[in-house]
Amino acid sequence: MSSLKGKTVIITGASSGIGEETARLLASQGAHIVIGARRIERLESLASEIRTGGGSVTYQRLDVTELRQMQDIIQLAQNHFGQVDAIVNNAGVMPLSPLEALKIDEWNRMIDVNIRGVLHGIAAGLPVMKKQGFGQFVNIASIGAYEVSPTAAVYSATKYAVRAITDGLRQETAGQNIRVTLISPGVTESELPDSITHKETIDFMKEYRSIALPAAAIARSIAYAMEQPAEVDVNEMVIRPLV
Ligand code: NDP
């Protein structure tokens, strides 16, 4: 029997890509899944698919840039399933462009979703986990958290920040029975490049992303970090396509 059976896992950004596949996988292993994103109709159809397959799931519209909404989805998880075993801070956006294109609104959106969204997950989840006396944060960064490339300066900055915040959280929660995991995917099939508006970058991405891993590969790494025995804290995983 999977050690995920009966655990309650909240997944942000579960309406597509990595979040969606993670919800499917963890539900198939018997976890209670709580999914959030802005596209409620996507969540509805994923929830219905999971329930048809015998899984346990609930969902709520979620904009991670609003702390209140993050607190509400955690409350939903507690109301439905009694506790919160893990939060996967997965929601993210990646409108890449060169700095000189001055796409300031897009820079701000990346900062809001990728950094503030993760911080809101921590702000809403940490008090609950401390009170319960257990929990796990799984924060999704990127290989962009380790290296910068042209057009990815701001995106990488947000992912470096996620990496720094995650390691700080790990250090500060030492001794509190709260596990902290950073998952850094390489290029993965998803809708992530759809937010790119810079024409040359869109063209470049088509070629660059041809080696993308299936999102299910990242979902498996998330499941791996969660299903370890309680005393095992998987701190960091980088998953790249084999080239
Ligand atoms: P997708 O675009 O397929 O998924 C992103 C998810 O984030 C969607 O469900 C979207 O849902 C959600 N989201 C965006 N903005 C918000 C918001 N304000 N509030 C709540 N949810 C939001 O891409 P991926 O699955 O690839 O992305 C998942 C994570 O993986 C991201 O953090 C990304 O940076 C990271 N990553 C992805 C890589 C890749 O190559 N795919 C590589 C490295 C890291 P909705 O629009 O419905 O709100």
UniProtKB/TrEMBL annotation:
Coiled-coil features, chain-numbered ranges: none
Family: Belongs to the short-chain dehydrogenases/reductases (SDR) family.
Protein name from the UniProt record: SDR family oxidoreductase
Keywords: Oxidoreductase
Residues that span the membrane, as ranges: none
Residues covered by the Ketoreductase domain: 7-188
Top-level taxon of the source organism: Bacteria
Source organism (scientific name): Radiobacillus deserti
MF term (GO), any: oxidoreductase activity, acting on the CH-OH group of donors, NAD or NADP as acceptor
PANTHER family assigned: DEHYDROGENASE/REDUCTASE SDR FAMILY MEMBER 11 (PTHR43115), DEHYDROGENASE_REDUCTASE SDR FAMILY MEMBER 11 (PTHR43115:SF4)
